[in-house]
TrEMBL record:
This is 6-phosphogluconate dehydrogenase, decarboxylating. Belongs to the 6-phosphogluconate dehydrogenase family. It holds the Pfam family NAD_binding_2. The gene is gndA. Pathway: Carbohydrate degradation; pentose phosphate pathway; D-ribulose 5-phosphate from D-glucose 6-phosphate (oxidative stage): step 3/3.
Length: 478
């Protein structure tokens, strides 16, 4: 029997779906799972795809079944289990074999794993995979980081299984070591912002305009046919229109308002802060999730403080206001994506990755959770203006910001006056307002720093005088 083209360890939900996708696209795949029963169960479930699957009961058998140099996908829980699995696998591997971590790893772990294998003859790929269960099975977006040679070994298989946008595969080699997992982390940071902004708009419709879940679902379904067309808007409409099998009410009204998080959103913000890149809308989204989880504290605070004592949202023209909400969401989305891409641009320099921005936008157009036609516009903006300092100053996006930021301002103002929380929308607006203002207010901060700590400042006239006239006993550490 011909050897398998690739191997996969870990037949959990994501691993089995990825393995079935690989087999379905005509690639022979060897599979191994810690518990042998699961391997047998998986092969039984594979139906006709069984012919392309080589089930293995031992690591020796598994390694022998794969064509060298062997690419081996490890699809298990992120963190220590990956290191343990690599340790178990390592003694069985040969020169140029490639261990591929396809989980949601912290890119710093990926860098460490990549470096640890540097002189061993073995190599490592950190591969971000987005699209959930469905994506893994029928076409995910795949972000690859590793050596170019190891990418070449897996390129054909990965291209065959990736989602396609107008026939173009949503997979790319993005750079060395941690590049793939870093880009996946930023994908998730943007995903958090997209979701939070949708939730805030939902809040305005539900608590401001007092619309039912079904009515709000119709609004999102309409928006999905316009410029906001995207997977997240599509599923938002669907979840709002779904009825609870127990009781028949809209299911969203029965779901506890306490959101979980596994860490990738938080990592994106930590890395943005590490590099001094403002990613305020993403930060607001991560913080909003954390705040959502303080359900008990929020309920207690409502009893003590009450809801804000303000006039309820009053809208004279509901149709026009809903149009404004649509444009406001688009404007805020631009802010979040601009921030995500700015973080990647900084990381690209810091880690010498040379991240290809138009390609990243391209491989996010299909397969992943943030997929949308909007990403096609980003691809084109970065292709035309590769050296732009920020997405919002590319000609196409500058026009979009100018066209939509008035709506964002009206919506944020109306929500704030009505006491409705819109932290991510307001952060995006604050970002635009700060980023586009040539003369800001940090002169006062520089003066304060010099006053209490003699930290010095630069002058706008270039004069070589770097301290203020604070007087003796006041400045320089007084
Ligand atoms: C994807 C998703 C996925 C992520 C889940 C849950 O791109 O397919 O980002 O990787 O694990 O969405 O993430 P949280 O639990 O942090 O919301």
């Amino acid at each position: 029997m011909a050897q398998a083209e690739i191997g996969l360890i870990g037949l959990g939900v994501m691993g089995s779906n990825l393995a079935l996708n690989i087999a379905e696209k005509g690639n022979k795949i060897a599979v191994f799972n810690r518990t042998v029963e699961r391997t047998h169960e998986f092969v039984e479930e594979a139906g006709a795809l069984k012919d392309n699957i080589v089930p293995c009961e031992t690591i020796e058998e598994f390694v022998a079944a794969i064509r060298p140099p062997r690419p081996i996908i490890i699809m298990i829980k992120a963190g220590d289990p990956v290191d343990q699995q690599m340790e178990l696998l390592r003694p069985h591997l040969e020169k140029n074999d490639i261990m591929i971590d396809a989980g949601n790893a912290n890119f710093r772990d990926t860098m460490r794993r990549f470096d640890a294998l540097k002189d061993s003859g073995l190599t490592f790929i950190g591969m971000g995979v987005s699209g959930g269960e469905e994506g893994a099975r029928h076409g995910p977006s795949i972000m690859v980081g590793g050596t170019e040679d190891s990418w070449k070994r897996v390129e054909k298989v990965l291209t065959s299984i990736a989602a396609k946008y107008n026939g173009e595969p949503c997979v790319a080699w993005l750079g060395e070591n941690g590049a793939g997992h870093f880009v996946k982390t930023i994908h998730n940071g943007i995903e958090y912002a997209d979701m939070q902004m949708i939730a805030e708009i939902y809040g305005i419709l539900r608590d401001g305009l007092k619309m039912s879940a079904t009515e709000i679902g119709e609004v999102f379904a309409t928006w999905n046919m316009g410029r906001l067309n995207s997977y997240l808007i599509e599923i938002t409409a669907k979840v709002l229109e779904a009825a609870d099998p127990i009781g028949g009410k809209p299911i969203v009204d029965m779901i506890l308002d306490k959101a979980g998080q596994k860490g990738t959103g938080k990592w994106s913000v930590i890395e943005a802060q590490n590099m001094g890149v403002p990613a305020t809308a993403i930060e607001a989204a991560v913080a909003a999730r954390s705040l959502s989880s303080l359900k008990g504290e929020r309920e207690a605070a409502e009893k003590i403080l009450g809801l804000p004592a303000v006039a309820p949202l009053s809208v004279s023209d509901k149709t026009a206001f809903i149009k404004d909400l649509e444009s406001a969401l688009l404007a805020a989305k631009i802010g979040a994506y601009a921030q995500g891409f700015a973080v990647m641009a900084a990381a690209s320099k810091e880690f010498n990755w040379n991240l290809p921005m138009p390609t990243i936008a391209k491989i996010w157009r299909a397969g992943c959770i943030i997929r949308s036609q909007f990403l096609d516009e980003i691809t084109s903006a970065f292709t035309k203006a590769p050296d732009a300092a920020n997405l919002i100053v590319t000609p196409a996006f500058a026009d979009m910001v100018k066209e939509t930021d008035g709506s964002l301002r009206r919506v944020v103002s109306a929500a704030v006056l009505a006491g409705l929380p819109v932290p991510a929308l307001a952060s995006a607006l604050g970002y635009f307002d700060s980023y586009r203002r040539g003369r800001g207010t940090a002169n006062i901060i520089q003066a304060q720093r010099d006053f209490f700590g003699a930290h010095g400042f630069d002058r706008i006239d270039g004069t070589d005088s770097h301290h203020g006239p604070w007087g003796s006993g006041l400045g320089a550490g007084a």
